[in-house]
Write a structure and sequence with these properties.
Helices cover 24% and strands 31% of the residues. The chain is α/β, with parallel strands linked by helices. The chain folds into 2 domains: 10-64, no CATH class; 74-189, no CATH class. The chain has a 5-stranded parallel β-sheet, with no helix packed on it. The protein has a 5-stranded parallel β-sheet with strand order 2-4-6-10-8, with no helix packed on it.
Amino acid sequence: MNTPHPIVPLESTRERTIKTLCTHFAQDHLDAAELETRLDRAHQATTLAEIEALVADLPALQATTLSPVPLVHATEVPDRRMVVAIMGGTVRKGTWTAPRQLHVLAVMGGAELDFRDAQFGPGVTTVTVFAAMGGVEIIVPPGLRVESDGFALMGGFEHSGGSPASPDPSAPLLRISGLAIMGGVDIQVRFPGESARDAKRRLRETRKLQRGS
């Protein structure tokens, strides 16, 4: 007598494969175009074999541990800095040391603050934003503790793409607050090298999985 093989639900395999593909993208095993192609094929697949083939040629995943946020000694941290964008644009990215207090002013202009490669002092780093008919984009890495509390008048103050933060209570904390008047403040969580478009696609797929669970 033959023992029947257990039936694996197609939809649960599809969801698990989509999540696995997003993890491979985060670990640089896939570029954005290849990820998009495989995700489309995953949604269109009608058999388990088609779904399983989408990850069969990929390398083993690394253990998904949060990367520690780079720390510097308190004496090396600037006390206060200001970023100003008036009818123009300014960008702060790459390796830099975040000051204890960072004030950002964007008036009819735009500012981008990329904290993915930034170094932090111990404790709390505060970012205070004022955007009037302008925009401020703040990019943070997964694992960084972030608190945001802002007010928008005819504008937006958004924090998207959240991810699990470090459970260490002594890890750095980035506290963002401010006001947007006819302007916008956008806080995004992105992996190193990840574009805004790729991050939105990853977040969209993650939300689909959460709604389906």
